[in-house]
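Q: Could you predict the 3D structure of ABC transporter ATP-binding protein?
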Amino acid sequence: MTHVEHLKGPQPFDKTRNMAATAPKFLSVWDIQAYYGESYIVQGVSFDIHEGEILALLGRNGAGKTSTLRTIARLGNPSLKHGEIWLDHEPLHKMKSHQAAQKGIALVPEDRRIISGLTVEENLKLAQINPPIGWSLDRIYELFPRLGERRRQEGVTLSGGEQQMLAIARALARDIKVLLLDEPYEGLAPVIVQEIAKTLELIRDQGITTIIVEQNAVAALKLADRAVILDTGQVVFDGSAQDVLDDEGLRAQYLAI
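A: Sure. Here are the predicted structure tokens for ABC transporter ATP-binding protein:
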């Protein structure tokens, strides 16, 4: 566990310590610094993920979690000014968003971006217009039977949980390596949260690496293998998810739980 004196408040994070994992890294984020205009949002964030891991990226509102996801996905806003992002030996930091997507990065944003006027199946087919194509519709419907039942229903008329399933399914319709999830549990009943968590475990079993940003920190930690906690745009904890669940002081200081 890399633990950064959390009871004494945020301290500079030693970037060399979490680079020392013996297993090969699949996604490496090194000292990324990103800005919205002149606002310094992501302030030297570094962490590694191994293939097939689920990482919970946590912190209070405004800690820089969504901005970090957007930077990894190379959306351009915030703007990456310094640092490197490597995915399976590919330099994402040198790419635009569409190039990063072609290399296997998929971001499911908080608002889900279901396309109005299109059915469930049309939303999925639209994701497969251009290569690289991922899971077949049959495989998607096997993972999400409810979507199969509603394949002819307009996507925006689905329940919140079903829309989240569709948003994840649309990502899987592409050939992805890393799934970035921004607040996937927001507004969902606990039973639906559990259902989506089980689905994400099945996706992990397929070798897909996942980063989940979630205000429901306990639910995210129960799902995740590891956790990174941000505070004011900096890493203050990098270790196992269970360590965070077991550390009441850490959770109280940085997660308010």
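Q: Anything worth pointing out?
A: The longest helix spans residues 190-205.
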